[in-house]
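New to this. Please check this protein:
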Amino acid sequence: MRTRSRLRSVGIALVAVLTAALFTFAPAAAQAADTATISGKVTVPSGMSVTPGSVYVSVQGVATTDNGFVNVSTDGTYTITGLNAGDYRVKFGVSDSSGLAGQWWKNQKDWSSATILKVAAGANITGIDATLARGATIKGTFTIPSGTEWPSIRIVDAKDRTRGVEASWQYDQGSKNYTLTGVPAGSYKISFSASGATEQWWNKKTSFETATTLTVKGGDVKTGINASLVKSAVLKGKVTLPAGIKLTNTSGLYVAVYSATKEVYLNSTSVKADGTYRLENVPAGTYKVNFSGYGLNVLGQWWNNTSTWASAAKVKVTAGQTRTLNAKLVKGAVISGKVTLPKGSGTTLKNVEVGVFTDKRVYLRSAWVSASGTYRIDQLPAGSYKVRVMPNDGTAAAQWYKGKTDWKTATKIAMKTGATRTNVNVSLKPGGSISGTVSGSAAKKGVAYVYAYRLASDGEWEYSGWAYAATSGAYKIKGLQSGTYAVQFYRAGSGAGAGSATAPTLPAGARSLTPLTPAPAAAASVVWQKWYKDKPDAESATRVTVKAPKNTGGINTNLDVAPKIQRLKTSVPKISGTLKVGKKLTAKPGAWTRGATLRYQWYAGGKAIAKATTSTFTLTKSQKGKTITVKVTGKKDGYTSASKTSKKTKKVS
């Protein structure tokens, strides 16, 4: 049996058994006075012609179901009437036998890149023209395993898998031969798939990244583009919830497959109301499987009953295998309480977030405070936690549980599996502020931001607040505790000429406890960030003191002026260990500027030892009778590089 269909853009293919056209259109009503008309002309290459039904024009509403359709006349002209006001995408489509490549208005290849046409009520829009090119043809065999169905082909841009192209295709299920026609000139990657089979990219590749690129020109006929699929594996099983917890309309469970070599998500499926799941189209291979939920107070787990990807058991499946994996989830711990605001703070309770951190200073989860001031954080595994309350507007200052000022001094809350701790209440106090002016092009373009980090009792910098600088350059960071701060000035986005740089994302609840390190701007001449008094980082920045509830003003900068290069703090390294062949030596670098990257080079008798570039070195016979030294080189953005060499050791015995 031979079937034919259209391939949709954005890499989505209609399966071979479909015989309907890509779009169906409701019959147009009699044209009202306030409806619009679109008209134009379609031009084809020399030697080709528009035959009846070979070329059509369709318009599709962007935000509505309004649409229109008409076949192009043999002279290339067309008119679509009866359109309501709105935004439309215009497609110039072709039939299987036309020999042409379709396109969207203004020569775009797919729906997602189509230029939008704005249509006013009653408008008569002319000149919506298109010049079509010859289409290429791609042929080959496409074999799917017995027991699978719905063969499908996707053609996508070789550089962007989200950008598909449209083409017509015919598939003969007897001979397994297929033909794609009307393919626009370009470079593509082709995917072959079927329900119950493992997707394959041409030429016998498993992913878009490794697929072979096929380049076609108008009128080309490419043959031998073949694919033969194998059955995929199936993972199935049942996920059991703790007693008293059930799925609702606002909750769910899912099973996700990850790579076994690195923590990369590959595929997933949802769990049914009865707890069962079935994940098909899993290629033969080795994986790790995660069971998780949302809107439910349960702890996610990795198969087989572990809490991390690193400790998860590997799951190996072969082609066509069905493997059963079950999971029994346990109830999470809950921390709840109430937040009270100081009078006159202007802080909105719904803009306050409460965050939970582990005893290793790692952010875990958070919840927004309700209008009544209450909060509830669930899905917590057993452990020891610290709670921080972070306002996102007004003048109330951030605070850790029991009135503590930083993570180091914050009160620990020990939680057992499934336990509930109530009355973790926090009364916020009025905060101080930092204000000033950002001058230069960034502020004028509205892309200047200012961030404040408070120096904690253990020497770490805790994110405490931010402010957007107005186009006048003025800014004010509110809600700051008393303390010592480092202030960062940041230029965001390409609007300031910063290339690929973007504003740092700062999750509410102080999820970033250390200074931000946003990506540098693409243009090296652009100052994308610096710290107060033209310094390159928090460590070198001139400190700013805040005494709440007062304001510390005059913290100004010009973001067009580059930060000053600083001198790296260094130390002479020392060598520890036994000076005998076969023994390991260790380089102790001493104190260097925080955040500096240190590199090592070991020497024997004053000559560099090949490949001896780590902080440890095991002596060999080649070093016998020679003295040993080690050189440490430090590098950090905004600082001059520096090197220090240790004293010579005694001779190796």
About this structure: The two ends are 83 Å apart (CA to CA). The first helix runs from residue 441 to 444. The first strand starts at residue 2 and ends at 6. The helical segments are 441-444.
